[in-house]
Amino acid sequence: MIGAFNGHGMPADLSIEKSFVIDDPYVKKLQEVLSNKNIMTDFSPNDTERLQNSLIYPYLEFFLRHDKNGYYKKLFFSRGLAENNDGKLKKDIKLHDLIKLRIHSDDLRGDGQKSRLIEHFSDKSFGMSFMSSGTTLGTIGPVNVYRSNLSLDLSRKINGNLIDWSIGKEINDGECLFHMAPEMTDFLAFAAIGSDFLRHRGLSVSFGAKVNKGPKDSTIWQRIGPNIKEMRKFFQSKNSTKYFIASGVGLYKMFIEPTGFKALMMKLSLGAPPVQLGENGVLMIGGGLKRLPSHITSLDQVVRATGDKIFTGSKVKKSAPVIDMLGLTESLCVFIGLPNDPQTSDAWVKYPHPLTYIALLESPTDLTPVKNPKPGKDYLLYYLNFATLDYIEAIVPGDFVKPADDKNQIDTVMGKRNLSQNGFIYSRRAKEDEGFKIREGCG
In the predicted model, is pLDDT for residue 135 greater than 90? Predict the structure, then answer.
């Protein structure tokens, strides 16, 4: 596959017309939902619930139609959704019944996805495999998820909906710096899908890191270093709309870790900090806590420490608004935040797209969906993405979240936003004695 960024990343043309399932009625239904307008801008929670309920049977039937080895027929029967091994679905299946299809993130390590995959193209070159960082000890390897070009095309639209809604306008101009290397777009979902969406919209996309030479047994993570030339070019640009996309560890290593002479040398080489993002610029962050020092327990610690170093405006400088995204290797679409002041004491709420069904479960030992979650209480997160066509993306990632306030609209530092579905507040990773081992965002 020849990608867009020096041969890396997703191709501009996903060739979805070559898919075996392009004329499938469920595929057409999804394309119809996404074709006209951004439903996040005017859908109410009731609209979202109606949409999700209308998709239950078409969604399950899609996997039965294209089930090559009987995996989904057996799965639906064993989980109580079908009357027999032939896949005859029971009547009156509800949204909460889809929780019975749950899989844990660990089920997608190694070849875990293989038996679950549905074929959409003649071969796997019409798609990409994404992997987590591989930092989890005591497992069989990183989470490894294949996405066909058809799913990537839907992802391009859905993640576009999410970002447009968060920023409050359709993104179609400006420039963007990813604080990562272009090689990472070959396997890191956050890098590949984000850079593809922005390039697809016509933005200038550059990368602020590069992969250095190193020992043959070293990992790409151990060889990542700054690309001074690209960062300086971006920081010195006078463009009025600049999007700076970084991980927590990227911000930490650029703005917090360097002190004394090291900080002076960085200032001389980059001309930053401070970073000027123009009148309409935004800082977008993601990537969880991986590779950050253990005393950093939440990303807002990093953001607060960098809030006086990244600005918008020219005559009157203001701290750049921050949008925090929660993206997992095993999630086709991000859970997006709304623009915040970096010094805010408000909770950082994450919101799903209407094509993603969210449920809050009582605990790792009681997977009952909670109808009326209590404010401030921890619940185990579950989600199902109705637009993932490669396998049933019904995931318990092992994260505890708190319910956000039940609202239809919210004020942000960049204006009001309609809420099409309740959000959640990331709380913590489940502990090892609860059956989970890894830190937030590690995969």
Answer: no
